[in-house]
Amino acid sequence: MTNDFKNNGSAPGAETQSRAMEETLADYSSAPNSFWQGTRDHDVSQNVAALLGAIEGAAPFAILDFGCGPGRDLKRFSELGHAPVGLDGTEEFAAMARAHSGCEVWQQNFIALDLPPGRFDGVFANASLFHVPSAALPRVLGELRETLKPGGVLFASNPRGDNQEGMSRGRYGCFHDFEAWRDYVLAAGFDEISHYYRPEGEPRQRQNWLATLWRKP
Fold this sequence. Notes:
By secondary structure, the chain is an alpha/beta fold. The protein has helices spanning 14-30, 32-39, 45-54, 72-79, 91-101, 137-147, 178-187, and strands at residues 4-7, 62-66, 83-88, 105-107, 120-126, 148-159, 164-168, 171-175, 191-198, 209-215. The protein has a seven-stranded mixed β-sheet, with helices on both faces. It has a three-stranded antiparallel β-sheet with strand order 1-7-8.
């Protein structure tokens, strides 16, 4: 299947954003069990530890697992003694996450969020925010900021690229470099904490994932 990538300067309008998200959710919904089998054993302990280590104050923490999928990391946060809530746009994933983790899970489209203000100590957005079209990203980041408590932490891990976006293999993706991603998150009112590249221990050219941490003032 061909890619339909454009530079971020050609970001889609509202109608196109909505269609892109609908197509992306439909693709995930088409084979939820295959996705689960392919990702359930992925080791993201480095990312989980990075978020928890950046949150100030005493545990347990209220965590929003943004784009929780079938609930792998949601269950891990619960096992560690925290109070996680999952969020996913896919009905099938939301049901699977509830069953797998025993946690509360909200089904919400990433570009049509309804989040409670000031509820969470941390937001864990692991491999999820890159599906948000760049034109919608300022609003979505602002909504994530508002659902955090003062001093709360946003963790985001996304595949990195050269600031292109579009449909690829049935899913919409935005592939930011660090500088562009940093501009988006700072503009949304976050303070920078740190960043790193994954997989751990690989040469930089093979580290295709950019992980970043941000604090709500």
